[in-house]
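Dear colleagues,

As part of the handover before I leave the project, I'm documenting each prediction I ran so the next person doesn't have to rerun anything. This entry is a single chain, and its sequence is reproduced below.
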Amino acid sequence: MLDSYTLKKSEILQAGGRKSPIAGYLDDFLYQRGWEEKKFNITINVDEDERETPTHKIDCYKNRIGVEIEWNNKDPFYDRDLNNFRFLFELKTISVGVIITRSTELQQIFNDLGKGSSYGSSTTHMSKLVPRILGGGGGGCPILVFAISPACYDPSA
């Protein structure tokens, strides 16, 4: 999926709404291959006290692998994703968490296209994610991160 991915100028310029065409492409690629959006129903029992413990839906899930696509959300979404991965890993529900995001270096392209304010410094990009991972945000869950970089950009598409 990532080997063949092209970041198209037209998709950067298109308004995202709930989900950008970029995140939609990545989700759809995985959904067509049997991945699914997944919410886990977890109940914890302590003596006679039963507690529902809701989790955040994982964008794409298959074979104990959770994938979150964070293209242009507010950066606290990383905290939510890492905590969810940590919790599900501790419950032996996932084996690895994967985050697909954008490299910080793409900001220059967004600025050049007049979209810099839409992709601001408080949104999801690699420089916001790395300190959270190094600080232990994922607990013991193995985390694999991919950042879409300027090398993927096609200004003619």
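The chain has one domain: 7-14+23-154. The chain has a mean pLDDT of 94.

All the best with the project,
I.
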